[in-house]
């Protein structure tokens, strides 16, 4: 199986079409809006993705490795004031994976030993933010913030060290806790889960050790040689919140890989519910990105007392980029919003094998899943118009979990331009509330977030952590 590389140097999916980088930084103002932007959306929608500035070798280029570009759309009082795109530049590196706010700062994030880069709210200045060196071994692109305590929990790793590190930052951005967790083989750990009482470490079979074995055998590897590892276990580690490696409980899970967690929560009987996007395998046939397997939303019911794990598929479509109402991180949730996979939405039926694609990861319509009923809603943005990761923004004084808006960047292949589209999160079928027309395209990237003005402290970049 490990020789079944389907792409050639001339056909790197992740350098073609709307995956191809844009060459220039852009600043535009007074954007055209169709519909009516909600006037309480005062802030900026930011997203980030790989956008290599220098020439890269298509034979070895891995989608996850490209230097980052951040895109920002400023909304205020019902107007779309500007769109700006900026190469992420710092003295150390250029994160490409996530951009979010914490402790009043806007932070661009990546995993595998790279520290956050702080970006000013106007996207004009950037600098490494490593909390006075305490994050010297890097951070993660997918920390989880407890909505009650404000603490930010992170599982970080660094290819140069054997230990994975559990890090907790307080709401001022100060490191308040660390514990090193020794793991074999150098697993890729992209995300994590948090409940009210536990942190969940994903130790799954994509590892640097397997990539090194592949390279030593003369087989093709990318410039980010993390590959599927037949020898590595698939397990999750449960650590008490604020706990240490000595307290970890490992539980075997179905053999798969997970980039993204929708959410997790504790149940009254002591069990744990963990909703994840499951890949049967990844980086086995596609060496340049996560193609080759159909991602599906599954629920793991984990019983720590017995070590039993029950897996159940949820929803009707293949989905990625899962998002919930952030007020429910670590608490029982009902709804998830996702980018559907496949331009038309790939229904998971008996005739769809989960391991069947050889192309890269292509998103399509927006999908909302009700995890209580198991039903899905789907919103198509129109022919040749596909969404990137959605973000849920709660309405002020929201009356329900889905009382708010879905913001996402939609790529229109008809015009080769992007839009920021606002939907009613409670009824995605009702059609767009507003469309902000951008005069440029935004390449398919990774993650984005709505960052309200209230979460930003002006001038924070000069403050000490
Ligand atoms: Fe991610």
UniProtKB/TrEMBL annotation:
Keywords: Dioxygenase, Iron, Metal-binding, Oxidoreductase
Known cofactor(s): Fe(2+)
Enzyme Commission number(s): 1.13.11.-
Keyword Oxidoreductase attributed: yes
Top-level taxon: Bacteria
UniProt-listed InterPro entries: Carotenoid_Oase
Pfam families reported in the protein's UniProt record: RPE65
Note on how the cofactor is bound: Binds 1 Fe(2+) ion per subunit.
Family indicated by similarity: Belongs to the carotenoid oxygenase family.
Name of the protein in its database record: Dioxygenase
